Amino acid sequence: MKTHKAFTALVTAERQRRDNFKTLLSAVLPRPIAFVSTISSDGVHNLAPFSFFNGVGSNPPAVIFSPCTKADGTEKDTITNLKQVGEFVVNVVPYAIRDAMNEASFPFAPEIDEFEAAGFTALESRFIKPRRVAESPVHLECKLLQIVPVGDGPLSANICIGEILCFHVADDFLLADETVDVTKIDLVGRLGGADYATIRDRFAMPKPSAPR
Ligand SMILES: Cc1cc2nc3c(=O)[nH]c(=O)nc-3n(C[C@H](O)[C@H](O)[C@H](O)COP(=O)(O)O)c2cc1C
Hints:
- The chain is α+β, with helices and mostly antiparallel strands.
- The protein has a single domain, classed as Electron Transport, Fmn-binding Protein, Chain A (Pnp Oxidase, Chain A, Roll), CATH 2.30.110.10.
- It contains 5 helices and 12 strands.
- The strands form 3 sheets. The chain has a 7-stranded antiparallel sheet with strand order 3-2-6-9-10-5-4. A 3-stranded antiparallel sheet has the order 1-11-12, with no helix packed on it.
- Strand 9 (138-150) and strand 10 (157-169) form a beta hairpin.
- The longest helix is centred in the first third of the chain and has 11 residues, at 17-27.
- The chain is globular and about 55 Å long.
- The mean pLDDT is 96.
- The structure holds flavin mononucleotide.
- Flavin mononucleotide binds next to strand 3 and helix 2.
């Protein structure tokens, strides 16, 4: 197999946080996007995309995502809301809603309803207060289990761990075995900077029958 000569960047106190961020985002990809809806204790509905996101285990089924602390050291509305009301919905992001999803990433003031600001239709959830995005075909209703801070200050992570209480899959995208039809759903993932990917190009690899 081909091996590689390498550039090595040590993560020192001198290396710019922005450079660490850019190298990380260009190396760990494509990242799925959680379009997360939360609600404040005052009842304001909030929506924001997060690509530091993944599914982690199934007993119980769980997800993690990370709203980072802002460059000015303050917290994003999503994390404030989660501390007030420990519930959230992960809405998936198909290609058709990419522009409006991007608009919802604007740092709107906390009193702005971001469903209205970005032009999404809100659906009541079954078990929790935050609403679902009707234009998204899959919703995960989640209960916050824990917030794990990683570092402190600007750009530090706040890993939110959530237990999935309920899956909603739009009929058009549901297969007989209760999985999502990946050939139809046309989800997007995030690459570095302004770049995104689709999953229109796929390949299959059967599990190995025996180690080599
Ligand atoms: C596709 C995409 C993925 C993003 N992923 C993250 C992320 O993983 N963590 C983060 O802190 N911000 C991320 N952002 C930026 C947030 O969406 C943005 O800061 C947003 O204003 C946060 O909203 P809030 O203050 O309502 O929580 C992402 C933006 C986009 C467009």
